[in-house]
């Protein structure tokens, strides 16, 4: 499977699906989540409202993945995943959503579950190309280098049949550089 690492705006990438670092409600938020919802148009939020809740206010649990149409995005689909909160990080805000208080497991394991769930969802839907942002690396307090290590491990634990290409699209120049350096050290 071909893997590329780029600095850029994930909302402008023409792939089968882009991954959204969502919150448990899946109704938009800040960072990449807000950018994806704005670029997709109001239909994305309306579609998300129709999705069943596993618990009140929780459409996607931490570590899980749910797909939706991409609407006005160049990507055909959006695969929403909820990354873990890294509670020991000084940049981590208090969670606003009830499901984030109940995340069970170590953040690193939950982050691996996010990547794995996205890849499994893509396989299940016949999506051949997929672009990831830096999951859990914004207000959730994770480090880009940790995300790069976890993503590298998960990608190399399986053949991921049917997936032909992956892209990691990092918005901030420093995110791109941290991800690229970590990835290259592992390859």
Portion in beta strands: 15-25%
Fold-level CATH name:
Leucine Aminopeptidase, subunit E, domain 1
Going by CATH, the architecture would be 3-Layer(aba) Sandwich
Order of helices and strands: EEHHEEHHEHEH
Q: Give the neighbour order of strands across the main sheet.
A: 1-6-5-2-4-3
Q: State the helicity in percent bands.
A: 25-40%
Distance between the termini: 14 Å
Main sheet: strands, sense, barrel: 6 strands, mixed
CATH C-level label: Alpha Beta
Rg from alpha-carbon coordinates = 15 Å
Helix/strand-derived category reads alpha/beta
Q: How many separate structural domains?
A: 1
Low-confidence stretches: 89-101
CATH superfamily: Leucine Aminopeptidase, subunit E, domain 1
Question: What features would you describe in this structure?
Answer:
The protein is α/β, with parallel strands linked by helices and 187 residues long. It has a single domain (2-186), classed as Leucine Aminopeptidase, subunit E, domain 1. Helices cover 36% and strands 17% of the residues. It contains 6 helices and 6 strands. It has helices at residues 31-40, 42-50, 98-101, 107-125, 144-155, 173-186; strands at residues 2-7, 17-21, 65-69, 77-81, 129-132, 165-170. The chain has a 6-stranded mixed β-sheet, sandwiched between helices. Strand 3 (65-69) and strand 4 form a beta hairpin. The chain is globular. The chain starts with a strand and ends with a helix. The model is unreliable at 89-101 (pLDDT under 50).
